[in-house]
Amino acid sequence: MAAIQQQVSAALAQPVATAQNFAVRESIHYVDETGWPEGEKLRWLWIHATPEVTVFTIRPGRTKEAAQEILGQNFTGLVNTDRYNAYHWVDESRRRLFWAHLKREFQAIKERGGKSAEIGDSLLTEVGRLFERWYELRENRIDWPAFQAAMKSIEQRVGDLLRAGEQCGQEKTKRTCGNILKLERSLWTFVRVEGIEPTNNNAERPLRRAVLWRRKSFGTQSESGSRFVERILTVVTTLRQQGRDVLDYLTTVCGSVNGKSGSIRLLPNSS
Fold this sequence. Notes:
5-stranded mixed beta sheet; globular
């Protein structure tokens, strides 16, 4: 079985490398990462999702350098991330924070009691208003200019509440609100740029499949095993994203190694 996996991994190396090069040139990006055991070492499984392809990469660290490798040193697109500092090198105007993560932080603020609870409760109310407007836009019940107009009061209110939280007597709340305000511009990228979502579902949903695999297999035992994982996850996720048949593609790729003809192109047909 291990030998067959390595044959498939070798066959997928070139199309996956092409997909990686394609992904860094896209304009919209969704990035996330999770731990991945490799033998006795802890590695990190990164997901880099774009509208056309999704690339998985296992790297030794969860660092700025790894993020730059994933997105490209000369990154010029728009990227959805959490508040982790490995992404702080991305200009605020090109970065968007996950509102689902922010909602969890606001819930934690609420649970601290006192003035913090009042601020947290009000922030959660604004999150609810935000997603109401977002669903109206997504379901074509309002147009883009109406959405932008409706978001102005929410943006103002959230900013006021975060500043109030920065001045409250609860140290953890003060610190959280202050750190979020440092990235305030990144909170609202999805309001300035059409086509950006306030969630990171495009990365978190396919990443969940990898997490389930990790739970069942306990990761990998070698570097070559990790290469197989990142390549097969890239191929399966990208093909499903494009509405293509996974088994047909894998059959064609393996056949091409054995001298049989057939397209092994992983990129979308328009590219």
